[in-house]
Amino acid sequence: LPIHFHTHDTSGISAASVLAAVEAGADAVDAAIDSMSCLTSQPNLGSIVEALKNTERDTGLDTEALRQVSTYWEHVRSLYSSFEADFRSGASDVYLHEIPGGQYTNLRQQARSMGIDRRWPEVANTYAKVNQMFGDVVKVTPSSKVVGDLTLLMITSDISPEDVLDPEKEIAFPESVIQFFRGELGQPYGGFPEALQKKILKGDEPITVRPGSVMEDIDLKASKADVEKTVGRDISDPEFASYLMYPQVFTDYAAHLEEFGDVSKVPTAAYFYGMEPGEEIAIEMERGKTLALRLLALGDAGEDGKRTVFFELNGQPRSVRIDDHSQESTRPTNRIAEATNPNHVGAPMPGIVSSVIAEPGKKVLQGDTMLSIEAMKMETAVNAERDGVIAEVVVEIGSQIGAKDLLVVFED
Description:
With 412 residues, this protein is α+β, with helices and mostly antiparallel strands. The chain has five domains: 4-83, no CATH class; 94-212, Orthogonal Bundle (Cyclin A, domain 1); 220-260, Homeodomain-like (Arc Repressor Mutant, subunit A), CATH 1.10.10; 263-323, CATH 3.10.600.10; 344-410, CATH 2.40.50.100. The protein is 34% helix and 18% strand. The strands form four sheets. It has a four-stranded antiparallel beta sheet, with no helix packed on it. α6 packs across α7 (143-156) and α12 packs across α13.
């Protein structure tokens, strides 16, 4: 079999690993174009090519061509600078936490969105502890996400490893963790830690075979008809495949496409940063069809929070009313759960309420799911920590909440 070596340069010295793999006889190695290389990306391709020149493993790649490609991507990268992670050097702590390069920057962004980016060293240490609690799993998408999801929950909810392992301590585990221990991602090398699996599954029987072998068959024709009815148009096979794998993501995409059209046609700088009055851009809708768009002026914001945008389209004056998101929000401040009030249930993490099951007057038992919160593709159920009757459900589906915001109130 051909040996293909892949690594990330989070440590700062992965080029040495690549060169060692080449010397050992690897058939292929992964590297990144210079301007997109290093840190959590792959080692620098141009430098590896130069290092192997005039050796038995000379790549034969054109270094001048590589530099030209690198220059192009350097410009492209500058357009996305607002999304760059605040990660400016190699980090030897990767040997401690073993966070994959593809997850590292995303996990830091998740921590930032949850307001715990200043606690990153604690996040990294907790990630390492969760990995060990899970049995030192092979961490690659999606198993690495499972480790990261529980890590973030533990930090935002002040849950210790001892709490996780304590069979008597009630914890609302993220859905991804439950799916992992149920065996929906397959069987990890060495199996699952039995005591922790028993706690997480709460009596559910785990899958002990290949997950795909027990999946229900899907009626592709009927399913495609259903989604086409939902989005109100015919969809392509690639779109249908996207829906089957990520139904909510595709549905959101389809709604955005219906409202705004194909925004991929808009030049990147204009899409991300907007236009200045007097600026003109060209939008190529299709081969041979290009629209010339010039921004003329912005009207004042009205009481309805909208502005009128005046522009020219192919020289013809036009105007459109749009929402002005720069206006100060009038949304009332969320109520905060009182830590000393046993009837208050607070949010374990910031996010958006994705489902609400609890109802005023309804009796719930300890462990019952009352609602779910979604944050950065991580869904977490909020379960009742005791038996009781619901007096008030403070939030609704779509509510934006912060950590410790009041969600549910029990009757006395």
